[in-house]
């Protein structure tokens, strides 16, 4: 293990990506069109605000062209104690970005001795998306959503991004990926400002159900293999992932509702 | 042409060592002790913001005594080295031994080649998954590494504190007894230290990933106030 030491005026500070650049370890963008390579793509992720925080959810399917390449990918991950990030787009760069983002938050916390503000975290992610722009231009776009609980404002907050790193805060819900139109519409119809945690989880489950129903690249609940979407809430108590048993029950309820209509 | 005076290498090394030791002895000491649930790091530190003890990685903590800016520089270098290694390989590949060796190389290099040695003593502690493989690496200003099994004492007055801990430390101490022993050893017979004078952190063996945890003054006060262990 070599010790990275820098002169006082030349120090990369608490930035891990900058440290990687200094050490010559940053990722290299492809120089020609990579979209023909049929790399796995991750699809629908959503997040919505409820009374005490935010719910985030993502389906589990990754596709390569018309084929399913992974059934149990986790596109929604915990970023740190009070935030989560979910990613749609080219799976390889997306997973790398998630890993780097998690590491950056932890690195900052350790070097500085205190956590970044929620807005600071959202901004960090924006810079990472922007630095992926050359790869995005070659077909490896990565479009995350970011949500978390802001202890300074005592509320849940959500951000959506575009491939250029544009960062937009939303007040009700955000969605990204190929099924985002369908999932977003379901949430738009069911969302109220003071929705409870339980209702918000149900709404998220329902949104992913409808996305999977209409979009071939979005995976639905897979009772056969016991694979359910990743759903988590972030409140003043921090990140809490919803267990598969709980989700299985919610999907049974949704399925029986659908059946009763026909 | 003027000739520099000849100074024997032994004398140069001795002067540097004396200089470093004097700097270190000016500051307050700290101790790290193994207890039943992990490793406790207890430093005498009246500041609540300038830390002597901090997190390096999932199971690794850092502690430094002596000149603050120097050991803080070492701390940040350690965080960087550990995060880079975990990023390049796996989180499981980051270990205290290799980190301690890097620190030792660096301190040894600075001690012999720079104008001034670093006036620091540092500790790299790693809590293992089982209770027999915990590691405490105590690294001196000249790059000497000492691998300690039970507890580690850094800073001025280390001999007296070690002697006191030899009396009070036993294998498998509970946290409250361990903190009391540490605080009594740091304070000595003539002083009384309260929670506000201390900086306490744990490497908690049972934690899921990041084992490092600070204890705030209220919690430390509560541990120190519980009824004394039967040994006393």
Short descriptors:
heterodimer; A: 262 residues; alpha+beta; Glutamine Phosphoribosylpyrophosphate, subunit 1, domain 1; 5-stranded antiparallel sheet; B: 232 residues; 39% helix
Structure description:
The complex is a heterodimer of chains A (262) and B (232). Helices cover 36% and strands 26% of the residues of chain A. The mean pLDDT of chain A is 91. In chain A, a hairpin with a 2-residue loop joins strand 12 (230-235) and strand 13 (238-241). Chain A contains seven helices and 13 strands. Chain B has helices at 9-26, 68-88, 96-113, 158-168, 175-187, 217-225; strands at residues 30-35, 38-44, 53-57, 60-66, 120-126, 135-139, 145-148, 151-154, 198-204, 212-215. In chain B, a hairpin with an 8-residue loop joins strand 5 (120-126) and strand 6 (135-139). Chain B is globular, with a radius of gyration of 18 Å. The interface between A and B is medium-sized, with 18 and 26 residues.
Give a short summary of the structure:
With 262 residues, chain A is of the alpha+beta class.
Task: Set down the secondary structure blueprint.
The complex is a heterodimer of chains A (262) and B (232).
Chain A: H1 16-22, E1 41-42, E2 45-50, E3 53-58, E4 62-64, E5 67-70, E6 76-80, E7 83-90, H2 91-112, H3 118-131, H4 133-137, E8 142-150, E9 155-161, E10 167-170, E11 173-176, H5 180-190, H6 197-214, E12 230-235, E13 238-241, H7 244-261
Antiparallel strand pairs in A: 1-4, 1-7, 2-3, 2-11, 3-12, 4-5, 6-7, 7-8, 8-9, 9-10, 12-13
Chain B: H1 9-26, E1 30-35, E2 38-44, E3 53-57, E4 60-66, H2 68-88, H3 96-113, E5 120-126, E6 135-139, E7 145-148, E8 151-154, H4 158-168, H5 175-187, E9 198-204, E10 212-215, H6 217-225
Helix pairs in contact in B: 4-5
